[in-house]
Sequence to fold (505 residues):
Amino acid sequence: MKYGKILRKLAIVVILPLLLVLIPAAPAWAAPVVALSPTSGAVGTEVTVTGTNFESYAGDYVSVFFDKTEIGGTIIPDNGTFTISFRIPDDTKAGRAYITVEDEYGNRLGEKRPFIIEGMEIERYPMDGTVGTIVAITGKGFYADERVTFYYDGTSVGSEMANAAGEVTYHLTVPESTVGVHEISAQDTLGSLTAADFKVTPSATVDPALGAMGDRVTISGTGFKDRVYVTISLDDIELAKDKTDKLGSFETIFNVPVMKPEAYEIEVEDDVGNIAKAEFIIGAGVSLSPITGNVGTPIIVNGTGFTAGKAVTVTYDNQEVATAVPNGNGTFSVIFNVPASITGNHPITITDGINIIKRTFTMESEAPPVAKLSLPEEAVEAEGEVYFDWEDVEDPSGVAYTLQVASDEDFADIELEEEELTDSEFTLPEETLVPTKKDAPYYWRVKAIDGASNEGEWSTLRSFHIKASFLLPKGAIYALIVLGFLGLAFLAFWLGRRTAYYRRP
Fold:
């Protein structure tokens, strides 16, 4: 009996493992897994839902829900893996949404997955600055892969495409605008809008940034109060005043005052206390007075900032016209008269060998008046030695005259041309022109040219003719006179010999 119980126990120990081996084992299934890519983004972002470990649902239809709204579905393949893509709907609000996978009976398969919908916003750097500042704008939450338009105070200034995640970058150059806070905004294709502030500060610019006594310098400013007066000053010396426009900008000119050469700070202040500053350097400089005129105009040259005791040379068109020696303060003054030169701009250079300053003198361009003819009168018959006369022409630069005589009214065939006549008259030597008849006269005219080479108009035409002369040429007359003297001498000699002959005893 005792041995029977032992045998039964052994049989169970042996047979039970064999039965466990022979009975088919039920498969063990892993839990379904749901994954998202990406897990955050803006409206319009494309999201891919991937399901794995769905082998136990092979052949079944499953649906994908976005915040309880079905956005797609598929039949599970034998390998238990599937993907479904969709875009975040246009009407989705910023915040957290959940994506779930359910079977046809409404049972959720796998865990629900959160998706973060980015809210629309922009950031800018810097947050304040002057007109012309480049502001880097970064934004998120815009409609993915669509264009975003940027505005400054409601005016479109440009656009850029958002990426697949609804992010965008744009660089804005601050346009002309008044001092204070202005709005930068961005809008996507759905009409959604977001904004941020930018503070404009005043600024001033001097052009050129280096000058000298007497120089004309342009100063401009932006970012001031609109339609108010601004005062421009240097070391408490008022240089100029101007008024800003509707955008808070201005531009004006000032003359550099007589001051010690060094770096200064120009201050611009509007009527409500907004201030901007700009650096300006005063160097060696020269002023001319006047800067326009005619030949012979006296020009006063004043210089400052030159080397004390070192000779300064003044040249006009590279011709030396004056010298001076600066005093202990480096200043000098000298006068010279403008030499003869053509109309237009002429360089004046002032240098002590170290400092070289260039200025410009503008020669007048007004032509002298038209000459009025006096003699010979119209259609007169002149002698061989013709005398021409006309009224004096007055011009600040002085004048010279050109006389022309031609055998035709068009002056195509010029018989005589006299240039640079300093007097308003001219005598034509005899036999210069051949005698002519009244129906084939000569024509003459005169014009004045001033010392700056400005040419006046030709005078009106006058005609004259030269009568034929029956007088012997002067050479023949002189020869006849000599022969007459010789004949008289011979006659006197002959009469003397004859008288002496008859008086012989």
Remarks:
- The two ends are 239 Å apart (CA to CA).
- The chain is about 10% helix and 45% strand.
- The first strand starts at residue 33 and ends at 37.
